[in-house]
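Troubleshooting: if your tokenizer reports a length mismatch, compare your output against this known-good record of 94 residues.
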Amino acid sequence: MGSINSITGDIVVHLNDGRFFNSEATIRFIKDIIEENKNKKIALFWDNASIHKSSKTKAFLINHNIKSILNVPYKPDYNAIENFWAEAKKEFRK
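Known-good structure output:
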């Protein structure tokens, strides 16, 4: 998973030790974002993956007063991190 700070443009990649991402991994990712942005308002803009919409993830977001904004389905070009992943894949495949 990755995040882009919309103010600074900083990109942070969150690895999951080679495991699949699930709700628990997503919550660990969000905890990292909270830690990196103490005392700041956080809004997450992400795709419609089931892990982003799970009841565990939603409850965590509500409990931490984090705004969740889901992208329009099938429109990855609206999500800035997708551009980063596309470039990273190109570099990786070289």
